[in-house]
Amino acid sequence: MKQILFLLLIALCSCHSGFSRKGQGDKTDSVRLQKELCALHRYVDSVIKSDTILQQRFHCLGAGLTKDKVTIDFLDIPEDSFEVFKSAFKKNVFASPLLEFNIMSDIIFGPEIISIKEDSLGRTTNIVLSPIPRDIPRGEAINPVSLSMRAEYDYYPLSTTEVKVIITNHSHFAYECGESYSLAYYNSKQKSWETLPTNPIVNSILWIFPSENPTHEQNIKLYTSEVPNRAGKYRIYKAFNRNTKVAYAEFELVDEAGAKRLRRQMDAAWNGKTISSQNIYGSYMRGDSIFVDLINNSIHFQELFRKEMLNYSAINYGAVREPAPFTQRAYTDTLQISMKTEKPVYPIGTESVNVILTNKNLSQQNLSFGEYYFVARKQGNQWIPLYDNSLVQDIGILLKPYSDYQFKAKLYPLFNDNTSGQYRVYKEVEFDGTDRKWYMIAEFKIE
Q1: Cα separation of 140 and 214, whole Å?
Q2: DSSP for 71-85?
């Protein structure tokens, strides 16, 4: 069937070709050869380009044409596999003395590459191409002020298998690069960078970084099955502008001992001098993970924490908390128990308000409660709690009849949008020796 199609293509080519009848000899043979080459090229090229599996199997994207041959170029195959590839192509695609086979190296290839070998019975089998180390590119180092290349996190646990790289152009100049990269580990004993396996498949894509801060992200796989992860520093290198310039992103993998070092580093930065160090109210460790409690753990404040305190991928902030409306009934004055703020109105930016809880119960019962309270802001017809420090000492307080209890209610203006409006301080209380609890409130305004 293949030969019939080929002969039909030869006939088609002859319909569109003509030659002089003078000096038929060599010229006639030359024209006939050109017609056959034309037909063979069209046929083989169409077969390859219409079958992506064939492209993957034989590492080629199509057929080429020279003055006396149709060329099949195998892309980046080992030299000792050349005869096997050539034999398999002739057996499975097409065989002709007009075909010429070559190996093309340093070619960027799109589809997944599958290499070919023959088993003991002469049958072809497929094997997946293994990850390969790539040399660290050479070129002029790019100033990070002009173009920055960074890992998403500064530190990762040893179990990490993928790292995201973020490239940003900060300059007025254009940069360009491809998908290719080099991965290296710093061997502290040898004091040198050693290259590690990288993705053997590199898509033929050109990324252009014009001015005005364009950013591109690329996920880099760590082939731990080829080379196990080691604690230490790593770099991802990329070449830019036709391999004339180089940039890299550096990160560190840490084991449990390294994670404890990061925890100590974080604790040292917990000094109240930054917004993030005021936002954190608790932390603990489990294995190589660090768990952090934030007053406001929204995505914005998590990102700020990574900038100001510690940028480690194994920090767990818990689920993002969106305060739900508080709907339970509450009282400013009931059963001769009352609660109020020291002032009815406070300015925007107020850090805390003084609250007075009074027990004038006629039955001479002690009022019992704990340290916990929360503040809510009125939004429409709902009361929405503010972000706060929910970690308090679990102690019981007794308020005797005809006495007051005063406490400060913090508003945390750094972590809440405390605009003008109505606010409430809520506190749960009960009479000592009973199981009936209710909420007292003290209302105030911010203007």
Answers
A1: 21
A2: EEEEES--GGGHHHH
Q: What are phi and psi of 300, to 5 degrees?
A: -60, -45
Whether 312 has a pLDDT exceeding 90, the answer reads yes
- The kind and range of the H/E element at 300 are helix 299-308
In DSSP terms, 366 is beta-bridged to: none
**What is the sign of the dihedral through the CA atoms of 24, 26, 28 and 29?**
positive
Please name the fold of domain 140-254: Immunoglobulin-like (2.60.40)
Of 255 and 81, more confident = 255
Location of structure tokens 């400060």? 408
- pLDDT above 50 (res 338): yes
Helix (H) or strand (E) holding 171: none
Question: Rounded to whole angstroms, how far apart are CA atoms 111 and 109?
Answer: 6
**CA nearest 334: which of 443, 439, 445, 444?**
439
Distance CA 41, CA 71 (A): 8
β 232-240/155-157 pair status? unpaired
Q: How large is the average pLDDT for residues 31-41?
A: 81
Residue 4 is predicted with a pLDDT of: 46
Whole-number pLDDT of residue 417? 94
d(CA 166, CA 154): 12
Q: What are the residues whose beta carbons fall under 8 Å from the beta carbon of 117, sequence distance 6 or more?
A: 81, 84, 124, 125, 127
Is residue 119's pLDDT more than 80?
A: no
Q: CA 306, CA 219: separation in Å to the nearest integer? A: 20
- CA dist 161 and 27 (Å) reads 63
% of the chain beyond a pLDDT of 90: 62
Q: Which helix (H) or strand (E) holds 62?
A: none
Closest CA to 422 of 346, 328, 309: 346
Q: Where are the domains of the chain?
A: 2-129, 140-254, 256-316, 330-446
Q: What share of the chain is helix, strand, coil (3-state, %, to 5)?
A: 20, 40, 40
Q: For 330-446, give the CATH class.
A: mainly beta
